[in-house]
Design a protein that fits this description.
heterodimer; A: 279 residues; mainly alpha; MetI-like fold; two-stranded antiparallel sheet; B: 313 residues; alpha/beta; 7-stranded mixed β-sheet; 4-stranded antiparallel β-sheet
Chain lengths: 279, 313
């Protein structure tokens, strides 16, 4: 697999989504330096101005919103929210889901029954409903969005990890390491995890795109990141009210969202192809 | 006193009896061969010693003792990899494809905390050299895919013997290898275990391997021991008709060349179709009405479970 992943010039072009993703991540990291203005500073004299509007030496390159905040600065800062929420929820749900799936497949018996039925139950609850209930209990907010996303998405990793571990658990090298006295945590961490990480990585990449969308959806519904924090979903939500008169408020965060999800999904598909070829 | 002592061991999958009353002992430093066809229960017997029976299989009767004390799961956790080591049939798939072989050889030392990481690593390289792997420093850093099947089996042997176990369970260690490599691997196992005083329970279906390696033999058929004794006695004067036929299936250099090789008629019945009494009676030319009772293992030292043995006990 390592040879197939090597960045040869010919395959380099096929990895443009990675470049796009890297650029968006760089935007998120460097937001305070890249953004021309404070994303939360209101200017009631410059409300709903079209892209290119200039006032007292300040250029609103992508226009301003209903409170006179710079749309470009908010889109750049919004990348932070999207990426941090998506990465955290992918990590959290991934760690929980993989642990559950591996334990269920490796220990079998009642542990398997309990854990995998729990997975089935979670998969059968509509994600949005679960999110609304959780937010109703915990209240909206940055950390809670991450928790909600992790809570709804861990079964996906559990399923994949379960299937992969099941296929590996009876392989001679796993049995042998048990025969050599390796403990369950050691077998799982050292012998099983490295051998199932590939497919899990593909799932995590695709889930990353989904989490970005999910966060935007929750924020759009007012269940996610709370104002004044810049979130693409929340920007879409307010922009919707002005779509006829000020199209730029909703369009640019939407475009950013599209690019981020597209790059993640393309990378995920490509990784999937590579791993599929290796097996 | 014997090192390993199995007594009246029975293994079932649900209600289905797969191993039924196996009694077997291994003394310190000796090589005991467990012989039988596929489905005779020899591998299950071996796996039950280290408590690695698969899903749905369980020991329903009998005792397993090591060094005079029962093999409890708790005790096994300490013994496995330290006093009891295993080698499997498939060398390549018995190694973790993503772990350098040196680390896999060192595994049992690290797992049991008998050596630090760096001590274990240098011990592993030493062990790789002893099993005849050239350039062990470089090889230790390679992945199993970079080694040949024979080399992988050498790595397995190194991994099994690094902690100087008192018992090595080798489950068909040469079946997956080329004939020329087989002989090398067998003599490697014999020499190293003899050097370390390690006893070996060798599971095989190959009588040639038995003759070359073992001190004593235990022949299994249909989940039971049919005959056991010292290699020399058993080969020179087999008592059970099954052992006798098994020995006659081996080609010999002094056989008349045109004569077809002897074959035992029929095939091994599955565990659902085992006849009552002696399980070999459906294929045995000497069977009669008496064989519907289960024959006990009789004899002193050299023992056979047959009412009509080839030679008197």
């Amino acid at each position: 697999m390592s040879a197939a992943l090597a960045f040869r010039p010919r395959t380099l072009a096929a990895w443009w989504p990675a470049g796009l993703l890297a650029a968006l991540v760089a935007c998120a990291i460097l937001a305070p330096w890249l953004a021309p203005m404070d994303p939360d500073r209101q200017n009631l004299m410059a409300r709903l101005k079209a892209p290119g509007f200039e006032a007292r030496g300040a250029l609103y390159l992508l226009g301003s919103d209903e409170l006179g905040r710079d749309v470009l600065s908010r889109v750049i800062h919004g990348a932070r929210v999207s990426i941090v929420v998506a990465v955290s929820s992918v990590l959290l749900s991934g760690v929980v889901g993989v642990a559950v799936g591996m334990l269920a497949a490796y220990l079998r018996g009642w542990v398997e029954t309990v854990l995998m039925r729990l997975v089935d139950i979670f998969l059968s609850i509509p994600a949005i409903l679960l999110a609304i209930i959780t937010v109703a209990v915990l209240g909206p907010g940055f950390i809670n969005v991450i928790l909600v996303l992790a809570l709804t998405r861990w079964p996906r990793y559990a399923r994949v990890a379960y299937g992969q571990t099941l296929a590996l658990a009876d392989r001679p090298f796993v049995r042998l390491s048990r025969a050599m006295g390796a403990s369950t945590p050691r077998v799982l961490a050292l012998h099983i995890l490295p051998n199932i990480i590939g497919p899990l990585l593909v799932v995590a990449t695709l889930e990353f795109g989904l989490m970005v969308l999910f966060e935007a959806g929750l924020s759009f519904l007012g269940l996610g990141v709370q104002p004044p924090m810049a979130s693409w979903g929340a920007m879409l939500s307010t922009g919707r009210n002005y779509i006829a008169t000020a199209w730029w408020i909703a369009t640019f965060p939407g475009l950013a969202l599209f690019l981020l999800v597209l790059s993640a999904n393309l990378i995920g598909d490509r990784l999937g192809d590579l791993i599929g070829k290796g097996r | 006193m014997s090192l390993l002592d199995l007594s009246d061991l029975a293994i079932q999958a649900g209600e289905l009896s797969l191993v039924d009353g196996v009694t077997l002992d291994v003394h310190p430093g000796e090589i005991v061969a467990l012989v039988g066809e596929s489905g005779s229960g020899k591998s299950l017997t071996a796996l039950s010693i280290v408590d690695l029976l698969g899903e749905g299989l369980r020991v329903t009767r009998g005792s397993r003792r090591f060094d005079g004390a029962d093999l409890t799961p708790k005790r096994l956790r300490k013994l496995r990899g330290q006093d009891i080591a295993m080698i499997f049939q498939e060398p390549v798939s018995s190694l973790n494809p993503l772990m350098p072989v040196g680390a896999q050889v060192a595994e049992s030392l690290i797992v049991h905390g008998t050596a630090s990481e760096s001590e274990a690593q240098s011990a592993a390289i030493d062990m790789l050299r002893r099993v005849g792997i050239p350039d062990p420093d470089r090889r230790a850093t390679q992945l199993p895919a970079e080694l040949s099947g024979g080399m992988c089996q050498r790595v397995m042997i190194a991994a099994a013997l690094i902690s100087r176990p008192r018992l090595l369970i080798a489950d068909e260690p040469t079946t997956a290898l080329d004939v020329t490599i087989q002989a090398q691997i067998l003599s490697l196992i014999r020499d190293l275990t003899r050097e370390q005083g390690t006893a070996v329970l060798l599971i095989t279906h190959d009588m040639g391997v038995v003759a070359e390696m073992a001190d004593r033999v235990c022949v299994m058929y249909g989940g039971r021991v049919v005959e056991q004794g010292a290699v020399h006695d058993l080969f020179a004067a087999p008592r059970h008709p099954y052992t006798d036929m098994l020995l006659r299936t081996m080609p010999r250099p002094d056989d008349p060349p045109k004569e077809p090789l002897f074959a035992i008629k029929g095939s091994v019945p599955g565990p659902r179709d085992w006849p009552s009494g002696c399980r070999f009676r459906s294929r045995c030319p000497r069977a009669d009405a008496a064989c519907t009772e289960r024959p006990p293992l009789q004899g002193d030292g050299h023992r056979a479970a047959c009412f009509h043995p080839m030679r008197p006990t």
